[in-house]
Amino acid sequence: MKNIDVCLTPDLLHLHKDTLENSIVVVADVFRATSCMVTAFAHGVDCIIPVATIEECRQWQERGYYGAAERNAKMVEGFELNNSPFSYMDERLRGAKIAMTTTNGTLAITRSRNAVKVLVGSFLNLEAVARYLRSQSYDVLVLCAGWKGRPNLEDTLFAGALIERLKEEYSMMEDSAIMAWRMYNQGKNNLPHFLANSSHIRRLQRLGIHKDITYCLQHDLFDVVPVLRGNTLVCIEV
After folding, report:
1. Which domain holds residue 209?
2. How many folded domains does the chain comprise?
3. Can you tell me the distance from the alpha carbon of 190 to that of 211, in angstroms, rounded to the nearest whole number?
4. What is the pTM of this model?
């Protein structure tokens, strides 16, 4: 039976180095990077280059890419796009190429490049990711982007939700997977309430981004799976 594990923050990814090269990594940054990426592809974006730094993003912007840059949940001055999924529903982005850097999510993606494959996951494409993984023969590691090296609740809940969808095909070998799965089942009937006092919810609410929170917690809106090929995310439909 295949195994599924959870890394609660990219700062712990080194503990999985022995299994990374034989696993598919699913990166989750629910609030809001991976939700933005899924939304962008669902609305016709051609590709997204995730980069770790603002400087790299600006270099791609200078080559004609749309630049999307966020730090501390706020848009960086001088770029066209922010970290709200609603920004990626714009018709002008259909067929566009985007370079993106965020506080946590793009860093998690760039750190995962030694994996067999790197997928982008969110609640918005949860079943699409699960369906794709059922067709694969590899173990899975869900990498939670967290917040500046610390675990967070929403990404851990996504990991638990994915495990819930895959529990007939995958074994949970480590406690982090069991923790995430049990936590999701505890809160799944009302995720907004379960997350009400979480640190990133409070951070976003101070910025008045209530609609982003509600949107990002919706399940199974899109049948798209972003996958990393080289340094570029492209979309596969499943």
Report:
1. 2-237
2. 1
3. 16
4. 0.95
